[in-house]
Specification:
The chain contains twelve helices and six strands. It is of the alpha/beta class and about 350 residues long. Helix 10 links the parallel strand 5 and strand 6. Helix 2 crosses helix 6, helix 4 crosses helix 5 and helix 5 runs antiparallel to helix 6.
Length: about 350
């Protein structure tokens, strides 16, 4: 009876935490702290469901054990997929650091375990300590990536909808004045959002300056595409000075507020970039929500890894707070190694 009571209390607490998360998410999804809450919440929920099913369904526990045993194989497949994607990015997009993120991550998946084994094999206190550091750093990085990936998925699949006064479409590189498939995905998403409003009078704000290899400002090329798709001239506000995401947001907001002093902005970018654009808009104090257009599947892994690095850089205080448990665990392991006489 007491065990049943504990389980009921545990499930009730889990439900309360889910309600709290959903309430806060609906209030404003542009907070990375919610991602830090979501990951442990999902893991605890999975654990609770597995425990319940193991009790009710014969053989379910064996299936879970089999999955756990196969974890090394899953890691190998994951690493191989990253390497394959990295090579694909190299061939299609050229050799640039930003295009080699998935390749680098895939190589590290294979190299770090081998390096850890070699360090342990040396059997000295400093090699054990270094192996511990590599292990904890790898676990922390993996947890961080999963946390951001999970929250980015939730952010994309369960958008918080509300009426808006303008759609700000973030620019990307154009070629000979023509929008690329990546940029077209953003523009098509903005057109979809415009059509979703009962009255399609949404201000459309293409934003982006002119790069050194571009014939004209990105915003001008984007505005041309919008006109070709039936958007009237009175709906389009061109912001053609911005050089990065922060300027995109600041300059576009100022432009919109000249006509609409109040009202929400819809920020439209690529799917891998939507979460970071939303987080940036909150840091700038803008009343906005972010949406992502479709991106080619091969492009997403490297692009999202790059976004993860940028989000970690932009939220250093949160990263330090999240790293504290790993740091304490690392310190504890080192003390154990020293006390054991290694």
């Amino acid at each position: 009876m007491q065990e049943l009571l504990v389980q009921v209390i545990g499930w009730a607490l889990l439900v309360v935490l889910w309600v709290l998360f959903i309430w806060q998410y609906r209030k404003d999804p542009r907070r990375l702290g919610l991602a830090a809450l979501l990951l442990p919440l999902v893991l605890v929920s999975i654990s609770a469901v597995v425990d319940l099913l193991s009790t009710l369904v014969p053989g379910f526990g064996f299936l879970i054990t089999l999955i756990v045993v196969m974890t090394p194989l899953i890691v190998v497949v994951f690493g191989g997929a990253l390497v394959y994607n990295g090579v694909l990015m190299w061939r299609r997009e050229g050799v640039r650091l930003s295009n080699l993120m998935s390749l680098t991550a895939g190589v590290l998946v294979f190299v770090l375990p081998v390096l850890a084994v070699l360090l342990v094999g040396i059997s000295t206190w400093w090699s054990y300590c270094l192996a511990f550091i590599l292990f904890m750093a790898s676990v922390f990085t993996a947890c961080l990536f999963v946390m951001m990936l999970l929250y980015a998925w939730v952010h994309a699949v369960f958008p918080v909808k509300s009426r808006a006064v303008a759609a700000v479409i973030l620019g990307a590189r154009t070629i000979n004045g023509k929008v690329t498939p990546l940029l077209r995905g953003r523009l098509d998403k903005a057109l979809e959002l415009n059509a979703s409003q009962a009255q399609s009078n949404l201000l459309m704000v293409p934003t982006g300056g002119q790069g050194p290899d571009e014939l004209e400002p990105e915003a001008v090329s984007m505005a041309r595409y919008l006109r070709e798709k039936g958007i009237t001239e009175s709906q389009i506000l061109i912001e053609d000075r911005a050089k990065d995401t922060i300027q995109n947001l600041r300059f576009s907001d100022a432009l919109v507020r000249e006509q609409q002093p109040v009202g929400k902005l819809w920020l439209v970018t690529s799917d891998y970039h939507a979460l970071r654009a939303g987080l940036a808009s909150r840091q700038l104090g803008l009343d906005a929500l972010a949406f992502g257009g479709k991106t080619a599947a091969y492009y997403r892994p490297s692009a999202f890894l790059r976004e993860c690095v940028a989000m970690a850089r932009d939220h250093l205080k949160l990263m330090i707070l999240l790293a504290l448990p790993f740091g304490l665990g690392l310190a504890g392991l080192i003390l154990v190694a020293i006390n054991a006489g290694f």
